[in-house]
Fold:
Amino acid sequence: MRGGLGKQLSPTWTNDFILVYKSTPDRWEMEAKPSGAGVPSDTVVSETTFGQSPAAGVATAYSRGDHTHGSPSDPIPAHNVATGIHGVGAQYLAKTPRTDQLIDHADLVNVLADQHHARSHDHSLAADGSPIAVAGVPNLPASKITSGRFGMPRMPDGTLNYVLKAGGVGVDPAYGQVAHTELTGVAADQHHAQLHKDSHKSGGGDAFALTDLLDCLARLEVKKAGVSVGKRRGLNLIEGANVTLTVADDPTNEKVDVTIAAAGGAGGVSLPEDITFLAVGANVAWTNQPAALTEFLGATRNRTKYDLTNATQVRLIVNVMVAGATTPAKIRAQYSTDLSTWYYLDGASGPSVDINTTGLKVSAWVNLAAGAKADVYLRIVGIDGNGAADPAFGNIALQVK
Structure:
């Protein structure tokens, strides 16, 4: 059957049973009620003392809605004038308060003056209760000191620039002057200002070594045409071409003598000079200039001799009227000392100019090789032609200095 709960009910009804819903088989069924369920309890656990342990309990009877466990008595007595605060200080609370709510000075029973008055306690006044007697302060004069230090008027008189030493014993020592003779073990240099530079001079008892003074010696500034080159302690002079240096040390006069001699040879060069191989005139063509190194025009007629002993540099000047091969073809200069073996004047490949275009060609100045600085033979050579181009020239010359 079905009841008002909307679920099927068990057909069997039993007295004092309870109705329980079962999800399986989805219906209400009758079951015996639990033992003791629904029976009110007539007792409660007392909780009127401190220190009880917690417990869940085992009784099945329920408590009534108006039950109580009780509470312990108030252990703190009330605050009142008669008993004081927690039984302490009744004599203060019992006082009738004044308008300004202050306690009378006479009410401070057993409180000493030092316990409620600010004190400096310098012990210099009788009012402090325990002043220190003058005799109790060692070396203190009869009159008390009013400042924090001894003034100079309190110091004993003495001679200007002298020192003082303790001259007495006990608690009241005397002071006296220290005599010059009492400076035992003190040398003159230790207490007299000394002018002792002479001892550091050469021959002095404490002379400086030269190495000690290197960093304090004046440095020499060297200039070239008014422009500073450097500041150093040493100056190194180097002999150039045709220049001879004679150097002599003069320690007595603290100087070094330098004599410079410039020599000029018979064939020497003082200004740039020209050495002509092909003079200005009709153009001279070099037919089919070859690629291999070849003397100018394939002939020896343009050779010459010149003393280059005093020369240092040389350059080549060639006026090209018709351009040579685009290789580019070149004209160069060589020297020889025997007309058999030839060398370039700079020991490498110069001086040299390219002749693949027309115009006045001027090489850079090159330094003469050591072997060329003599009375030597000179010639002009060509190289890097193509065997077809025919370059033509106006004048060809070397310029030396």
In short: The mean pLDDT is 77. DSSP finds three helices and 21 strands in the chain. The longest strand covers residues 313-322. Residues 1-31 form one domain.
